[in-house]
Each structure stands twice: as structure tokens, then as C-alpha cells.
Amino acid sequence: MTRSPGWHNSSPLDAGTSSRSLEVTTRESPPDSVAPVVWFTGLSGSGKSTIASRVCVELERRGIEVEYIDGDALREVFPQTGFTRAEREEHLRRTGYMASRLAAHGVTVVASFVSPYRESRDFIRRLCPGFIEIHVATPLEECERRDVKGLYARARRGEIRNFTGFDDPYEPPENPELTLDTRALSVDQCVAQVLERLGRQLG
Amino acid sequence: MTRSPGWHNSSPLDAGTSSRSLEVTTRESPPDSVAPVVWFTGLSGSGKSTIASRVCVELERRGIEVEYIDGDALREVFPQTGFTRAEREEHLRRTGYMASRLAAHGVTVVASFVSPYRESRDFIRRLCPGFIEIHVATPLEECERRDVKGLYARARRGEIRNFTGFDDPYEPPENPELTLDTRALSVDQCVAQVLERLGRQLG
What we know:
The structure is a homodimer. By secondary structure, chain A is of the alpha/beta class.
């Protein structure tokens, strides 16, 4: 049998590899190099993506490296993802982990997800030292009145199941970094509030 | 009823938002700014992580921004991930997507995953313009002989199911960028071959 030069089945080698893996994956980078993760949560049609995409444009204009992650667009990459609580939670946790790693490398993340469950959002908060939770607090009635994508009409007709606000709960943030009342504020004003809140973190 | 200043339920606003989301998520960055995704695939115990973690150290020493993603470590973040084909595929696709976004922002990704299915690896290749597939081609008999983690003994005793090489297939890459024969090469030699292959891409 050929001896394998330099390869050992000793546990020290294995232990060394494992500890490195963990160190790399779970280490907290120094606060000044970790970028913010700006997480928009709110009902479907609340205006999350409209504000979030505008915030991205403004950040990029300022020369900031930004990754925009949109719930609808990400579902096009992973079309098999369903809308049960378990599937949504897994989807959010995976997305949050990705956000945390991008932020650890200095990329500012702007994410727009209904993200209805407190537990998933708190999981992401724990992973991301620079987490900024922004509640786009448009009430259900107003979202349904706007019904930009026609989803509320379909949910009313019973054509969609597990629809947040109807037969699936939305658990509002208890202590978000920012709450936006889109009935009182224009898009421009919302964007300005987010940038102002972010300004403190971007320095 | 309060009018919402600046908010419209017109479709142009929605269409604009959606197209931006898609553009940002699926755009291909110019080739010169996309970092490589160095993907190690091979059986459990083949030596993937040993080589991959050493490659990381060498790249960081050269001042390159690196993210190391290790299959075992990532499963500690997502302990609910199982070992069925569907669960592995989902896990790999999610990981590949994360790798593609990190690489798009100039972060070199080094990933060490059994990643037994050709289809999952090809999904990742399609997402990552700088994909470098490295087959750590240690044969099953040699992995079992080393059995660094004691998993082969457990699989032989029937204590583990869906174990790659036993009751779950390993589909070797058909056209990998690099194949490493760890019976003929030392760890140092493997690392050197990877760095040499990478050198062409890093310039």
C-alpha cells in the first residue's frame, strides 16, 4: 500500500481543522469593519421594497458597497421555497446568515422581506452586530387598499394560503431601530429617515 | 381618510421596484471585479478541509479578503439540515448563492463541502462566474482507512444513514478545474497546486 506523505489520521490535525472552521465562521469582526444590515420588515404591499431600493440608490451614490436582497427576487432563485412557517423561517435564517457574512466583509446589506416572525428576525439580529430593524408599519387595511400586486384580492378570494395578515400572523417588532408610518410620510421622507438613522452607524 | 402623500398603487411604481430587485440580484458584475469561488468537493475524510483551510491561510497572508465556508461548521449554524438528497441539495444551493454574492463583492470564497451531486455543483457553477471546482479525489477505501472522524466505522455499523459512498452516491466532477490525488501528494503539495491554479485567476 502506498503511504500517503504528509497525511495523518491523528486527531490533532482534525481538531485543528475544525477549530479553524468554527473560528472563521462564528468570529465577530471588530465593530468598525462590520457593515450595517438594514432589515425592512412589514406586510406585503407596505412599501418596504420601494423604500429599500431607494435607500440602496442613495447609499451607492455615496460610494458605499451595497447588497440589496429582496424577498420576491430571492424566491425566484429558490422557487421551491414555500410559505409555511417552517419554510419561511428556514428561508429567513439562510438569508440572514448570508447578510451577516456580507456585512462581516464590509458590504452594507439592505434587505426587504415580510419576515413576519419575531423569532426569525431575532435570529438574524444575533448573527449581525450591525442589525438595524426597520418596521414599515403600514396597517393591513391600507396595504389591502393599495394592493399593488393584487395579492390581497386573491387572498380574500381564498386563492392564496398562508398569506401574512390573513391566515398567517405578522408579529410586529417590539423594539425596532426605526418605525416608518407610510400614511403620514412620503417615500422621500421615509428614505430620509432611514439615511439619517444609518448616518450614525456609517459615521 | 388620510391621503398618503407620495404613495401610489399604480403599477409603474411596482414594476420599477421589481425590475430593480431583479437587476440587483441577478446582475453579473464585470469579470475583473468578481472574485473566485474555490469549491472543494470529495468524500468525507478525503482531506478537503485540511487543504482548504491551509489555502485560506495562504491567501490571507497575501492580503486577499477570504471567506471560508466549511460544510461541518455551517451545519452547526443550521442543525436542522438533514442528509436526504433534497436537504443536501437545498443546503448546497443556498450556500452557493451566498458564495456568489460574496464573490460579486470581491470576496474570494473557499468552500469545503462533500457536495456529492453534480446537479448542485453545476447550479453553483452557473451562479459563480469565477467557479473553480477542485476534486479531492481520495478513494473511498483510503478515506475509510483514515476515518479521521470515525464516521466510516459508524456507517459500517449502520448507525448513520445517507452516508456518501455507502448508501448515498458520490457523483465525481466530470470536468473539474483541478483534481488532487492525496495518495500521491502531501498536504503542502496539494496547497501549492491550488495556489498555482488560483494564481492565474488572481492575476
